[in-house]
Write a structure and sequence with these properties.
Order of helices and strands: EEEHEEEHHHHEHEEEHEE
Radius of gyration: 18 Å
Shape: elongated
Largest sheet: 4 strands, mixed
Number of strands: 12
Strand order of the largest sheet: 3-2-1-4
Distance between the termini: 24 Å
């Protein structure tokens, strides 16, 4: 079944999804009239092509994302630096599971693509299975490693026949997204699948 996604702030750029691809992009009223059988998902905020996070290796290979069951030992926030390296040295099998949790954190921030050279096989496999796109890393990285990097990097506009990768942010416009950051994400779609939805 086709799904028509529309956000309140960008009704002129609704997205019709068919499988893993974008079937059409355009004003909601026109797409709804042309595809009356499509399931409609309405969202607050704005629908955008999704974000590229340039810190793929730092977030997925250089950071340990604790399992909630490890909260007593490691806490709940990502762990970086030497402590993360020590965790991976002590138990290399943690890397793949950590990367899977890291990918979920990226999805929760509207990220649909990462950049940077990933070297660890468990991480490469995780990214591939998750459907994250791989982009080119900017020559100069301006801000610190973050799930909501500065500046935010949007992917090119969605096009008919292209991959259905996009995110919805609960903000009134792009300027407010820049001000508040990617933590305002309420839903992320990758290859037509909803991989994150805020509760």
């Amino acid at each position: 079944m086709r799904t028509l996604h529309v956000a309140e702030g960008t009704a002129e750029a609704a997205v019709l999804v068919d499988g893993a691809s974008v079937a059409a992009v355009g004003p909601y009223e026109e797409l709804a009239a042309a595809h009356p059988a499509a399931r409609v998902r309405r969202w607050p905020g704005i629908l955008l092509p999704g974000l590229l996070n340039p810190y793929g290796p730092e977030i997925l290979e250089g950071t340990y994302h604790p399992d909630p069951r490890e909260a007593a030992e490691f806490g709940t926030e990502p762990i970086g630096g030497e402590r993360a390296r020590a965790i991976f040295r002590a138990d290399p099998s943690r890397l793949g599971a950590s990367a899977r949790r890291g990918v979920q954190r990226l999805f929760a921030h509207g990220t649909v693509a990462v950049a940077g050279e990933l070297k660890a096989r468990p991480v490469v496999d995780t990214v591939r299975r998750a459907g994250l796109a791989i982009g080119r890393r900017p020559e100069r990285l301006q801000g610190p490693v973050s799930l909501s990097p500065t500046p935010l990097v949007l992917l090119p506009p969605l096009t008919e026949g292209g991959p259905a990768r996009f995110a919805i942010f609960e903000v009134p416009d792009r300027a407010e997204l820049v001000r508040q950051g990617a933590g305002t994400c309420v839903a992320t779609v990758v290859e037509g699948r909803m991989v994150y939805r805020a509760r």
